[in-house]
Amino acid sequence: MNFLSVLSVLLLLGAANATALEHPRTLIPRAPLPPAEFSVPITGKVPRRKSKSNALARRGHLGGGGGYTSIVDGTLGDNEFVTNVTIGGQHFSLIIDTGSSDTWAIQKGFQCLSADGTRVPQSTCGFGSSGFDVNGSTTFQPSNLSFLGAYGNGWSVAGPVGYDTVAIGGLSVEHQLVPIPNAAYYTGDGVNSGVLGLAFPTVTSVYNTTDPANATTENHLLYNPFFFTAVKEKKVKHPYFSLTLDRGTFQQRENDTFDANLGLLSFGGISPVAVVEPCVTVPIQGYSTNSTGSITPSDSPDAQYFWYTVDVANYGIAGSAELLTGSNNTILDSGTGLNNVPPDVAAAFAAAFNPPAVLTNLTAGLELYVVDCNATAPEFLVHIGGKTFSIDPQDQIVPLGADAQGNEICVSGTQGGTLTNNPNGILILGDVFFHNVVITFNPIDGEVTITQRAKY
Ligand SMILES: *[C@@H]1O[C@H](CO)[C@@H](O)[C@H](O)[C@H]1NC(C)=O
Ligand SMILES: *[C@@H]1O[C@H](CO)[C@@H](O)[C@H](O)[C@H]1NC(C)=O
Ligand SMILES: *[C@@H]1O[C@H](CO)[C@@H](O)[C@H](O)[C@H]1NC(C)=O
Ligand SMILES: *[C@@H]1O[C@H](CO)[C@@H](O)[C@H](O)[C@H]1NC(C)=O
Ligand SMILES: *[C@@H]1O[C@H](CO)[C@@H](O)[C@H](O)[C@H]1NC(C)=O
Ligand SMILES: *[C@@H]1O[C@H](CO)[C@@H](O)[C@H](O)[C@H]1NC(C)=O
Ligand SMILES: *[C@@H]1O[C@H](CO)[C@@H](O)[C@H](O)[C@H]1NC(C)=O
Ligand SMILES: *[C@@H]1O[C@H](CO)[C@@H](O)[C@H](O)[C@H]1NC(C)=O
Ligand SMILES: *[C@@H]1O[C@H](CO)[C@@H](O)[C@H](O)[C@H]1NC(C)=O
Ligand SMILES: *[C@@H]1O[C@H](CO)[C@@H](O)[C@H](O)[C@H]1NC(C)=O
């Protein structure tokens, strides 16, 4: 499949939106992570046997109906990772996004819009289903609220909000607030019907007005996203969710629109996958908002959590002793494909490919490090909390499909942060990083645990 287009590249560069409210900032002493109570395998055709068999073994352990698993899949050349989410008894594949907070599914009968707001056929939006049918749910309750979501890659969705039962991998929450937008500017993958947002309540996008066009900062209404409700209602013993995203093979990433079994989403503990050293638990970096609404990393007691932002002390390239610029403004974002690191780091990394990756205007205004698909990639090192995590060179050659002349185009998995759609200088460790670690998020205590995975 050739999907080299500005849109496919923008999907790789996906990201979050923002707003604000307080979140308690307390750090607790850490204990070893418990195994997950609920797990959602992420699906695939190829060598993912280890995580799959571990997941199934775990299911056996829990026994007696205690083990809940569903499947997570890769779509669009494994640039997006989706899992099966049930809303009011209806099943949808939603994009797993640790970089945003709203969990929504498109509503049946929605209007698909072009960039300039004109109505286009529903198929243009590329959703994977006809959408959530309010009449098909016996548990759905309407509200007078509305949703106005905007994503870093340009997507925007708007419409009503309701309450319904949401279930993922056997973890079920009743009367969860769920946006069901009826208008979308969206470039779907033909599989997903919306987003599963796992970040903080501060960056939810619901407003106390029946018309999303009247959304303002004054009527912005914060709510608890799915996982926060589950914790509040003590549906999980421990306030963890854990994400493992496997890499597909080069062939899958080049050509596949759908790959089953590409990892695990787990609730209540760490995903059951093979891990090695190192492992580190670090605090989530909070932000302070100044009078003009700008946010800066802050350790002050009134700091708020927006995303899963960590302090990357510095970066390195295997075989070189040089330490490259880090940043404590770095988000762990499963909804973004590529890493977005400081420009000097991206440049040093590009130079270490053989042959080197070259900064290129792929299309007007879209400058990326392009690399020979057959190049030898360097091993990238990420230093967090005094530990060094390694990114497999396989993840650094990302196929985008063929250009008009039929030449395969690949880009570096690690790009310069300021070169992309990147508000406030926020940097991102995306799926390229996630392929090498299992990340266990504890949003309640403000910590994340990063564990290196065994090579696969
Ligand atoms: C979700 O899982 C249900 C139950 O196993 C299945 O019937 C449905 O087809 C799945 N839906 C999606 C979108 O994967
Ligand atoms: C749901 O039912 C209402 C009232 O019967 C109807 O107006 C609406 O079109 C239905 N919605 C869908 C998506 O079928
Ligand atoms: C929405 O507002 C109308 C008018 O104020 C009211 O009658 C209705 O009960 C409200 N609906 C919900 C679900 O709150
Ligand atoms: C929403 O706004 C209405 C007034 O328009 C107010 O009565 C209501 O309390 C608000 N709801 C919430 C949850 O703030
Ligand atoms: C939205 O705002 C417009 C203009 O300010 C106003 O006329 C309209 O009544 C508002 N609609 C709702 C649903 O609040
Ligand atoms: C992808 O598919 C095209 C067309 O079938 C084929 O030429 C190409 O070799 C495939 N790429 C890989 C990496 O398998
Ligand atoms: C707010 O923060 C931004 C970014 O750090 C800075 O440029 C601006 O001057 C600050 N404004 C005020 C009023 O402090
Ligand atoms: C990291 O954040 C703190 C506030 O939490 C700030 O004072 C410091 O300058 C930041 N350090 C770097 C390297 O960005
Ligand atoms: C890409 O295009 C921009 C705007 O035309 C230009 O400033 C920049 O130098 C170009 N970058 C490269 C690597 O050619
Ligand atoms: C990469 O190598 C394969 C053979 O191993 C060759 O068929 C292909 O054309 C090469 N691709 C590039 C972009 O050089």
From TrEMBL:
Domain of life: Eukaryota
Membrane-spanning segments: none
Catalytic site: D97, D333
Domain Peptidase A1: 81-451
Keyword Transferase: no
A GO biological-process term: proteolysis
InterPro entries linked: Aspartic_peptidase_A1, Pepsin-like_dom, PEPTIDASE_A1, Peptidase_aspartic_dom_sf
Signal peptide: 1-18
GO CC field: fungal-type vacuole
UniProt keywords, alphabetically: Signal
MF-aspect GO terms: aspartic-type endopeptidase activity
Family: Belongs to the peptidase A1 family.
PANTHER family linked to this entry: BETA-SITE APP-CLEAVING ENZYME, ISOFORM A-RELATED, ENDOPEPTIDASE, PUTATIVE (AFU_ORTHOLOGUE AFUA_3G01220)-RELATED
Protein's name according to its UniProt entry: Aspartic peptidase domain-containing protein
Organism: Mycena metata
Organismal lineage: Eukaryota, Fungi, Dikarya, Basidiomycota, Agaricomycotina
